[in-house]
Every structure is written in structure tokens, then in C-alpha cells.
UniProtKB/TrEMBL annotation:
One of its GO terms (biological process) is translation. Pfam families: Ribosomal_S24e (PF01282). Keywords: Ribonucleoprotein, Ribosomal protein. The keyword Ribosomal protein applies. One of its GO terms (cellular component) is ribosome. This is 30S ribosomal protein S24e. It comes from mine drainage metagenome. GO terms for molecular function: structural constituent of ribosome.
Length: 105
């Protein structure tokens, strides 16, 4: 998978970075988790403070436009981000912790 940064805006009023990417991939469409981990690795962002706002798939092409918001802290994310997205992130974090504990045993 190849990720190219299209736009990187520092929104100081809301305490976040707004980043747009063009992702080119192979056989299957990129998942939200894969996109988030790749983007966080590339820019050095904290995954727990990062939310994927939008993924636009281009029909017939193996490309997607991805819009990501990365907040400076958890409080800013809770204040400005939609509640269902933050709940989704918390559920995924809990399930990953549970899987890690099962593997450790």
C-alpha cells in the first residue's frame, strides 16, 4: 500500500491536525484499521487520538481519498469529535486488550 499526503493543515482553534491522503493499494479495499495504522506510522501520530473522518473510494480504481483528524489530546477529541466515533475507538481498544490478554495466557 502506498500513501501520499495531499494536504496537511494544523487547525489550532480545534487543537487538531487535518490530513488528507491518497492511498493506492493492491487487491482488496483498505480497511479503516489498516489505513489508521499506516497513517499514524508515516506521520508519527498517536493512534488513540486519531480519527478517520472519511474514506472516499474511487470507482474502478484501486485508490481512496482518506481524511484524518489527529487531536493533540483526548479532551479535545472528546469535545469536538462525534460521540459514536469515539465510542467505536474505545470498543476497538478494549477488544484488542482482551485479545492480547488471551494470547498472553
Amino acid at each position: 500500500m502506498e500513501i501520499k499526503v495531499i494536504e496537511n493543515v494544523d487547525n489550532k482553534l480545534l487543537g487538531r491536525k487535518e490530513v488528507s491522503f491518497l492511498a493506492t493499494y493492491g487487491d482488496k479495499t483498505i480497511s479503516m484499521d489498516e489505513a489508521k495504522t499506516e497513517i499514524c506510522k508515516k506521520l508519527g501520530l498517536k493512534p488513540e487520538n486519531t480519527v478517520i473522518n472519511r474514506i472516499d473510494q474511487k470507482f474502478g480504481l484501486k485508490q481512496s481519498m482518506i481524511r484524518v483528524y489527529s487531536y493533540q489530546n483526548k479532551e479535545a477529541m472528546d469535545r469536538y469529535e462525534r460521540k459514536y466515533l469515539t465510542k467505536r475507538l474505545e470498543k476497538k481498544a478494549k477488544s484488542k486488550d482482551a485479545e492480547a490478554q488471551k494470547e498472553a495466557q
